[in-house]
Structures are given as C-alpha cells and as structure tokens.
Amino acid sequence: MIRVLSVFGTRPEAIKMAPIVRALRAAPGEFESLICVTAQHRTMLDQVLEVFALKADVDLDLMVPGQTPAGIAAGILDRLPPLLRRVRPDVILVQGDTTTTFGAAFAAFLERVPTAHVEAGLRTGDRWQPFPEEMNRVLTTRIAAMHFAPTPAARDTLLGEGVPAGDVFLTGNTVIDALLQTVRTDYRFRTPSLAALDPLRRLVLVTTHRRESFGAPLRSICEAVRDLAGRFPELQFVLPVHPNPEVKRTVETLLCDLPGMHLVAPVDYLEFVHLMNRAHLVLTDSGGVQEEAPSLGKPVLVLREVTERPEGVAAGTAMVVGTDRDRIVGAASELLTSPDAYARMANAVNPYGDGRASERIVTALATRYA
Ligand code: UD1
Ligand code: UDP
Question: Which domains does the chain have, with CATH numbers?
C-alpha cells in the first residue's frame, strides 16, 4: 500500500485536491489516503470539505484573524514535522502556490519525505506578482520530486528550469475534474440573496483578493465596479467578499448600498460554480476562476497586471486588464454594449484539461511509489 498524505489549507487548494483524494480512495488496495488540513482558511476550507464530503484525518487548525504568511508558515514548520515522523507517508501531495503549499513541502523536505506538486510550472516570471505566490511556486518546484503540470506551457517551463523530464507529468488541471463533477443544468441557489436574483437581468460576477493589490489598486478595482454599476443600472452585480480583513474593509466601504450591487459572504463551491454559469461577464483576480470561467464560455476580465495562466488569454476568453479604473471600465463597457465584442470572447474553450487529471496523477503516483 502506498501511503499518501495530502496536505492543504485554503479554499482553492481544497477544491483542486478533492478530485485527487476521491480518485485515491477509488483505488483501494493500492493507496492509503490520508488528509492533513492546515486550516490556513477555516470557514472557506470547511465549505469545500462539506461540498465534497471529505473529512480531515488531522486538522492543524492554524487560522487566526489577522494572520500573516510568515505566521502560517511558522505554524506549519512547527506542527507538520512531528506528524510526518508519526505517519511516515511515502509521499505528500501539495497543490498550487499558497503558504500551505510551500510550508508543507519544506517541512516534508526537512523530514526527507518526497513531495509531489499538483499544478506545477505556473509562472509570471515576476517574483512580486502574484505576491507571495510566485515565490511559493518557484521554491516548491525546487523541493518537489514529482511535478504535475496542468498544461504544455507549464510542462515546458519546468523543463526549461532544468527539472528532469522523468519527474514531470502533463496531467491537465484538477480544477476541471472538480468543475465537471459539480456543474449541472437544473441548479437552484440555496443562498436567499442569490435565489432572489432576477433571472431576466444580466449578471456580472466579481471577485478580488490579491495581496499585491492591497491599497490603491484594490480601491481602483472597487471604483471601477462602482462606476460600472452607475453606468449600467439594468445589470446585477454579485461580489462574494473575501474575508481577508483588508479586502473586506475596502470592498464594503466603497461598494455598500449601491443599487444592483450584491455583496455576499463567500458562497460554497456548489453555489459559486452555478453563479459563474449564470453570469454574463466575470471580473476577477482569482487564479481558479480564470480557469473555470473559460470552460463555461464566460468572458473574463483579469484584474491583474500579469497572469501565470496565459492559456485562457490565448484562447480568447480572458483578457488581462490590470487594476486601472478607466481600463477596467473601458473593457467591461465594450463587452456590455457590443454584441460582436462579446461574441468574440464568449467561446466555451477549455485549455486546462479534460476532467481526467486526477486519474493521471494517481496512475503516476502508483507507478513511482509501488
Ligand atoms: C490565501 C493565499 C492565496 C489564495 C487565497 C485564496 C497565501 C499567501 N495566499 O490568501 O494564494 O489565492 O488564499 O482565497 O497563501 N479568513 C477568514 N476565513 C477564512 C479564510 C480567511 O476569516 O475561511 C481571513 C482571516 O482573517 C485570515 C485572512 O482572511 O487571516 C487571510 O487569509 P490568508 O490565508 O492568510 O490569505 P489570503 O489572503 O486568504
Ligand atoms: N470560489 C468559491 N466561492 C466563492 C468564490 C470562489 O467556491 O465565493 C471558488 C472558485 O470556484 C474557485 C476557487 O474558489 O475554484 C478560487 O479561490 P480563490 O479565488 O479564493 O483563490 P485563487 O484561485 O485565486 O488562489
């Protein structure tokens, strides 16, 4: 039996790890699958565990209000090594680019436990954007023994950095596995404010939470959304507000009490997938949403200066518009008023996978550690 310890802590990691954990459990006799959550996020993590009916074997319960990446990393380095010594996994699985991702990989390295990295090889090439995620990715690559690249470009990046070809696996992104396992046509919202949305009015979905945008760029994003709500009073805007206090304060100050604006608490993944499906247009600085929206044929304006996910841009469904108010308003207005411009972007393309990434990851693990 191959003992696999999956370590994750935030909402996006949980969503992208859930299909792998399911696939590991569907191959009994081959794997002993254990989950350790750092709970870098608490409520948003628990929402995902519930949607995918997962239960953590170990919960480090690290989140504290006002935490810093350094504080979370310190907690992981303190608490994970004793667990690794006790459990002795053959390999740990980490996903993505958060503090949990790098902290767990580094803790495993110190205990000489190999790390397999899911969603490896994404880069902007700028260590400050996204911050601190770009550095988390680079450092996790240096540590990992197996690298699961979601796209050919990510695989080529790893090979270009000198990662041995035998350690790199082109798998697709598990975000598509999760999406395909979740989306359905006959969905009804459970959150009262979403159930009350007018089905006949177009909906713009907005999410924002990047650390490098804190301060003036985040204010500029909010001002752009405010401006759009004023120009297009016939639209409905839905913005699930990220609970990071810095985000919450800015968004709530600048966007409360506007007609047509629905500021809601983070909704669970099931609700969010169907919000995307219902949306006419998506404005976001999220990594995961940039991958999901193209698969649903929803134009995405990326509220960042650079993206490590160029595939959606190349496919024509995503456009990088930065954080400048006028640029965001200009790009969104064009899509909202020009049917031709909208049609050019609203193609359902899916450059991120075929829904079988977890299966490939599990096969690669079985081959390496059997
Ligand atoms: C983290 C990740 C980021 C990822 C994002 C996904 C790092 C450095 N950043 O950023 O890559 O895109 O998660 O959302 O790892 N909070 C709650 N409840 C929750 C979750 C968060 O109240 O369920 C609040 C807490 O006050 C917490 C704060 O949000 O202190 C920040 O959480 P943290 O994980 O440190 O950073 P994020 O900005 O969420
Ligand atoms: N998401 C969710 N509820 C929300 C907002 C987003 O379930 O209210 C999901 C979304 O479908 C995607 C993931 O959370 O899979 C993205 O997480 P986030 O934007 O927090 O992080 P990132 O992907 O930028 O690291």
Answer: 2-173+354-369 (3.40.50.2000), 192-346 (3.40.50.2000)
